[in-house]
Amino acid sequence: MNEPNLEYHPERFAEDFERIKSLAEHLLPVYADLRADDSGVIDNQDYQDLIAVLHELHPADTAAVLESLPLQERVLVWKLAAPEEDGEVLLEVSDSVRETLIEAMGKEELLAAVEDLPADELAELAPDLPHHVVSEVLETRDEEEREQIRSALSYEEWQVGAIMDFELVSIRADVSCEVVLRYLRRFESLPDHTDKIFVVDENDVLQGVLPIRKLLVCDPDDEVGNVMAREVVKFRPEDDTEEAAQAFEKYDLITAPVIDENKRLIGRLTVDEMVDVIREESEADMLSMAGLQEEEDLFAPIIDSVKNRWVWLAVNLCTALIASRVIGAFEGSIEKIVALAALMPIVAGIGGNSGNQTITMIVRALATGQLSAARIGLLLKKEVAVALTNGLLWGSVMGLIAFFLYQNMGLGLVMVAAMTLNLVLAAMVGVLIPMTLEKLGRDPALGSSVLITAVTDSGGFFIFLSLASIFLLG
Amino acid sequence: MNEPNLEYHPERFAEDFERIKSLAEHLLPVYADLRADDSGVIDNQDYQDLIAVLHELHPADTAAVLESLPLQERVLVWKLAAPEEDGEVLLEVSDSVRETLIEAMGKEELLAAVEDLPADELAELAPDLPHHVVSEVLETRDEEEREQIRSALSYEEWQVGAIMDFELVSIRADVSCEVVLRYLRRFESLPDHTDKIFVVDENDVLQGVLPIRKLLVCDPDDEVGNVMAREVVKFRPEDDTEEAAQAFEKYDLITAPVIDENKRLIGRLTVDEMVDVIREESEADMLSMAGLQEEEDLFAPIIDSVKNRWVWLAVNLCTALIASRVIGAFEGSIEKIVALAALMPIVAGIGGNSGNQTITMIVRALATGQLSAARIGLLLKKEVAVALTNGLLWGSVMGLIAFFLYQNMGLGLVMVAAMTLNLVLAAMVGVLIPMTLEKLGRDPALGSSVLITAVTDSGGFFIFLSLASIFLLG
Q: I need a surface site. Which of A11, A301, B63, B440 has the fewest CB within 10 A?
């Protein structure tokens, strides 16, 4: 994609944004279904204005507008957006919004939208397109491209092979820089983000890379083999995209070669894809911690939202029921000292909060590769020490308050002990949950916020009520 | 920074990693303070091995190793790492770890570490360096660089001016591509990430940019003015780095010019800095939601961890106390029906969980610019509808369970009503908290997880206990 044909003015974009929204809202009641009757529409000033604004937008901006519109307005705007950019826009929007857009398109529109896309981008869209559209598009491509698309589709979403692109420039090591420059001039344009040219032998085996920065300053008579970098960061199609993204981040890469098991160059990774991986990865962690299954279209039908959220709500209900049975077991104690019912949520609550702090820190450290599962012992020691400190500190404060509220010294002391113990429990579980998930090869963020609260609730109630039963009623 | 002189093998790096850790652990008891007695050390094989591994690492890898080591081992490794890369490593590590490394260095070591850094990187380190070191370093720089450093330091951390770099290549519009190529060849090397050359007039006013991709394919006789792109995405030093990062992400940029109020070119932004901004921003959101003030050194002294966490723990205690007083107000009802004590945490818990789902989704949408505060009405409607659906669904399940447990029909119905109402409350507050913070220009993630739990706890207890008091005891 080229650079946008507009200056970057966030304010101006925000204005366009509001403009599009209000135009779409005005038009909606009149032309809910534009296909049914297009004749009278042309004279409508709002309609003309909306098209004019939309056709000036960069595809990425069109995508942003579509994301933030409710379903009906979204479909209306989508029908009026510049059709020659439909493919780019589909690539930019999130999965859930893409689905709603594709649903609104006919077969011919879909074919037109994807016909100019390069192989890697077509492969990215293919899983979301109707089957017959995909097979029809494939027929228009040559054998090489079909092979590339099939290859991309054969990898999992999280693998390098699924997101690498196939447009690249490669040269031989035994030519001079002068020859390379002349060779490049024969291109109409170079692939996006070309910061290096790949050097291969006659079997396409990767020999090294020639950074453009070097090419531009080298002596025209120098041979590529003497100027190129031989040790390069390279990837395999089976590699994890998150690890590739971390390598891009660490080593400040713009592009990197992808090679097959015979070290033959088969594609390249570009930093713009890696930026998306980083963004998606940290979003997925955040959603996952809160117990959401996937990124949600903000204006999804209610049923979709309910589906996205029900699993962890159900888990939460089960754990809440357990906590409730823990309390139920101490109903006798509560009948005798009803203050216990009022104080027990404090013990549970601070445990949940503190446990969430620990778990968030660890999920983050695991995601950035700062932490390996081997450091578990050391971390446990530290987190327990922090919990002990906080427990004695805040436990004493709450113990005093409980003492003043209920004029019961024993109750105050039980409060101190219960809070300290529950914070220690929270610290241990806050370390163990994500580290164990990581060791098992699972996503350490998975529902961690729900799980830690489950433990600190049941644990907190049990610790507090049993201490109270033993020392105040025993 | 150049590309690392090693192939990217995550496994190999992991091996090095473990190697360094175990060597450091072995060496620690013997050479806790290497400066005190260096003479006997040289013969130690572990010592030699550790140095050998460390000197092969890329600075970014050294930084990753240092992040994951406990304090004493970290200082030991730091002293043995390749000193010529000290500056790069300091730039790579997180703020909290940087502090521990700088503390371990003498004045001469610090001066040596930063002497070769370009102006923008020196400015990035300056706030963390001892004052006398900064002033001594500044004396070694020429007037232009001192001015650049002063300028960078005059901006806030979150502004483009603080992270832009000053190394760039600029040319005039009235020369031919041939001349540009010859001009570039006079450089020893081009600045990192040079994907475009900036075209300026005699007053340094930005006229356009010449992408290297175009330069390489254009006719040598073409004039730059005819080949360059005139409309470019450009930034002002006062701009927000997060907005700049979003623009880089949207428009797939590698570098972009920064101009002053007279449109004069003063620096450039590069994608590697933007990747860091994106990573830091999403991390900060995650930490902030959980009520952590800042990224924490995993092996920070306990006192630092306590300080980082106490504010939100204290807030949580206050809100828990309020929830406790709400329960306290209904002690009479609980004495009569002790089952209320066992059931009330279920109502509060599911509200907290569901509210967290809502708030997480909204914080994420606000962060990626998908959502503007103006859509609040529409979102409220949708979230309340989702909450009503979930409330009636899961409320009925729990109502039935409560009925079977306690053989009390009224209790079951109160349960259904209370859960539904608390989920609706959670939905409304889950939308309103982040949207209001955003409207006020505050960070929408700020402690949002703690705040939502506060509302759903107190609210849940109040709704459930007052419904029970009215319908079961009234």
A: A11
Q: What are phi and psi of B207, to 5 degrees?
A: -100, -30
Q: How far apart are the C-alpha atoms of A102 and A117, rounded to whole Å?
A: 16
Measured between beta carbons, the chain A residues lying within 8 angstroms of B327 are 341-342, 345
The one-letter code for the residue type at B465 is L
Contact A136, A115 (CB under 8 A): no
Chain B residues with beta carbon closer than 8 angstroms to that of A287: 360-361, 364
Among the residue ranges A132-136, A201-205, B385-389, B459-463, the one predicted with the least confidence is A132-136
Considering only the beta carbons, identify the residue of A235, A316, A327 that sits closest to B8: A235
User: What's the rounded Cα separation, in Å, for the pair B27 and B83?
Assistant: 19
Query: E strand or H helix at B200, and its extent?
Result: strand B196-200
Q: Cβ A251–B58 below 8 Å, yes or no?
A: yes
Say whether A320 and B345 touch across the interface (CB within 8 A). Answer: yes
SS3 A176: strand
Asked if residues B349 and A371 have their Cβ atoms less than 8 Å apart, the reply is: no
Distance between CA atoms of residues A41 and B424, nearest Å: 42
Which residues in chain A have Cβ-Cβ distances shorter than 8 Å to B342? 324-325, 327-328, 331
Structure tokens at B207: 């006229």
- Span B241-270, pLDDT tens digits: 988 998 998 889 999 999 999 999 999 999
The DSSP code for A470 is: I
| A401/B286 Cβ within 8 A | no
The three state secondary structure string of A388-430 is HHHHHHHHHHHHHHHHHHHCCHHHHHHHHHHHHHHHHHHHHHH
CB A412 within 8 A of CB B328: no
| Interface with chain A: mutation pick from B11, B183, B275, highest number of A CBs within 10 Å | B275
Element counts in chain A: helices (H) and strands (E)? 22, 5
Res. A375: pLDDT tops 90: no
Nearest to B179 by CA among B220, B138, B227, B129: B220
A263 Cβ contact partners less than 8 Å away, ≥ 6 residues apart? A205, A206
Q: Supply φ then ψ for residue B118, to 5 degrees.
A: -65, 165
A321/B331 Cβ within 8 A? no
> Within its chain, how far is the Cα of A459 from the centroid?
33
Condensed to tens digits (0 to 9), the pLDDT of residues A77-126 reads 898 888 888 999 999 998 888 999 999 898 888 999 998 899 999 999 99
Q: Note the ipTM here.
A: 0.84
Cα distances (Å, whole numbers) of residue B207 to A378, B211, B230, B244, B263: 57, 13, 6, 20, 9
**Hey, how many other C-beta atoms are within 10 angstroms of the C-beta on B35?**
8
Length of chain A: 474
Chain B residues touching A323 at Cβ < 8 A: 345-346, 349
What does the longest C-alpha to C-alpha distance in chain A come to? 95
The SS3 call for residue B368 is: coil
With residues binned 3-state (H G I as helix, E B as strand, rest as coil), the percentages for chain A, rounded to 5, are 70, 5, 25
Q: How confident is the model at residue A41 (pLDDT cuts 50, 70, 90)?
A: low
pLDDT value of residue A159:
93
Give dist(CA B212, CA B255) in Å, integer: 12
B/e letters for A290-303, b = 16+ CB within 10 Å, e = fewer, are bbbeebbbbbbebe
Paired tokens of B38: 């260096």
Whole-number Å distance between alpha carbons of A352 and B35: 45
Give me the residue from A192, A364, A457 closest to B349, CB to CB: A457
Tell how far CA A41 is from the center of its chain: 40
Pair of tokens at residue B296: 């924490």
- Cβ distance B217 to A185 less than 8 Å, yes or no, reads yes
Contact call for B334 and A339, based on CB within 8 A: no
